[in-house]
Amino acid sequence: MPSTRVHPYIYVKLRGLGRPTLLSIVLLGALGFSSANAGGQTSPTSTPSTTAPATPNNTNSSSGVSRTAKAITYKRGGTAKVAFRGTDLMSRGGGEAKVENKGNRVEIDANFQALDEATKFGFEYLTYVLWAVSPEGRAVNLGELQIKNGSAEVKAITDMQTFGMVVTAEPYFAVSQPGDEVVLENAGGAGGETIGATYQLLGRGAYSSPNTRIENAIFGIDHKTPVELFEARNANRIAKNANAAKYAASTIAKADLQLRSAEEAYGRKNDKKIVISMARDAVQTAEEARVMSVKLKAEDDARAQADADRRAAEERTAKARADADEQLRRRQEAEQARVQAETAKADAERAKAEAMIAAADAAKARLEADQARQAAVAEQQAAMAQKQAALEQMQAAQAEADKARQAAARAESDKAEMRAQLLSQLNSILQTNDSARGLIVNMSDVLFDTGSFTLKPGAREKLAKVSGILLAHPGLTMQIEGHTDSVGSDELNQKLSEQRASSVRDFLGQQGVALSAISAAGFGKTEPVATNDTAEGRQRNRRVEIVVNGDAIGTSTTATARP
Predict the structure, then answer these.
(1) How do residues 359-388 score in pLDDT, each as one tens digit?
(2) At what angle do helices 490-510 and 457-471 cross, to 10 degrees?
(3) How far apart are CA 168 and CA 201, in angstroms?
C-alpha cells in the first residue's frame, strides 16, 4: 500500500489492507447509509437483529471520559523497545514498538499481533488508530492500522520527547480525538522516566445518533470494496449526525461531492489507489465538518444557557426586591400598631388618675383602669409579636435577596459587561464616570442645603435607588469622598466635607449596605475639579463622590489608592 501523510510531523506506512468479514459487513449494514453498494449496484438490505458489544472499561457517553496512559521520556540518541498490552476489550492483543530519539524528532516502528476486526465493538467502528499522548494530555493521531490476518505495522515520526502510546477502535482514520474504545496501551519502563498522562476520550455517542433512522444497509455484500470507502461513508454519516448541514454546510457539501466522486470512480472500476485516495480525502473533509459543527453547536448552547441563566437571575432579583418592599410595608404596619398600643396604655393611666381623684367612684374607676391597662398590654404584646414576625420575614427575604445577588454575580462571567451595566444603572440616577479607581458617582451640592450636611429629600431618594443597585451587586466597596469650594476657612471646609461624606455613608448603611464595605473621608477644598473663580466652577467643586470598586467589576482594592 502507498505511504500516506496524515499529520505535518508524522510519516506513516501501513502494511496490509484489512477486509471486513461477511458477518462484520452484515452488522455494519445497520448504520443507515444509502442502499447502494460501493459499486453503485443495489444489494440486499436485510440485516440480522444483532446488538453491538458493550465497552467494559469506559463510560458509554457522548460527553467522553478520561483515561491515564504511561508517558515515557525517550533519551536523545537512544533507542528503546516498548511493549504493548491488550486492555479488557482485547486482552489477547499485543505488540512492540521500537522508539528512536534522533534529537529533533522521534521515530516509531510498531508491530501489532492478535488484533480482532474493529467491527466487534459496534456498527460504527471500522479501523484502528495509533495515538501519542503528551504528559499534558494532548493526543496526536499517529496513523491508521489496517489489519491483515490479525497483524499490522505502523511507522511514524513525532516531535514529542515524552509521550505514551495507545491504540483505539475508530469509525475512520482521520479522527482528531481518541474514542473510548482503547484496545492496546504501551507498558512502562523502557529505560526512561514514566509519567502518568491523563487524556480525554470521545464517548461512543459522538459517532451514533438515536435520531438516525436505519432503513437500508450501508454496505453491500462486496468483498472487493476498499475499507477506505466504508470509512468515507461512515465519516459522512457521523458528520451529518453532528448537524454539519447546519453548522458547516459548505464543508459537508464538499465531503458529499468527494464521496460521490469516490463511489463513481469505484463503480467505473478505476485504479484502486485512486479510489482509496479519493475516499481518504472525503474522510478528512467530513471530519473537518464534524469538528467545526461540534465547536459551533457548543458555542450556541453556551450562549443560550448564559441567556437563560441571566434571565432567571433577573427574575429572582426582581422577586427579592418585591418581597423586601412587602416586608417593609408590614414592618411599618407593625410600628403603627405599637404606637397605637402605647397610646392606649397612656389613656388607661390617665383614666386611672382621674378615677383616684373622684373618691366617690374610686373603686369603679380603678377597676376600669386595670381592665384598660390589661387590654393595652395585650395589644402591645400582639404588636411586638407582629413586629418580631415581620423582622423574621424581612431577614428571610434579605437572605433570599443575598442568594439571588450571588446567583446573578456568578452568571455575570464577564467583568467588563458587569462594569458597563453598573455604570449605566448608576448613571441613570446620578452622573457617573468610569475611572481607573472605579466608578465615580457624583453628587452635586444641590442635594444638600447650603452650608449643611443634611441630605435633601431628593438626595435621599436618589441615594435609596443607588443603594438598591449596590445591594444587587454584592462584593463591591464604596469610598465616600466629600469636597468643597474655596469659600470659607480651611477648617470649616474640611469639617463640612467630612460631615457630608459621613451623611451619605450613614444613609447607605440605613438602606442595608454593609458599613464594613463603606469608608468616608473629607478633602475640603484641596481637590477642585474646576476653577473657584466662577460661580459655576465653585458649584462643580461642591460635591460628594462615591467611588464604587471591587473585583466583581474588574477593579482591585489596590487600584483605588488615591494618587
Answers:
(1) 778 788 789 888 988 998 998 899 989 999
(2) 60
(3) 10
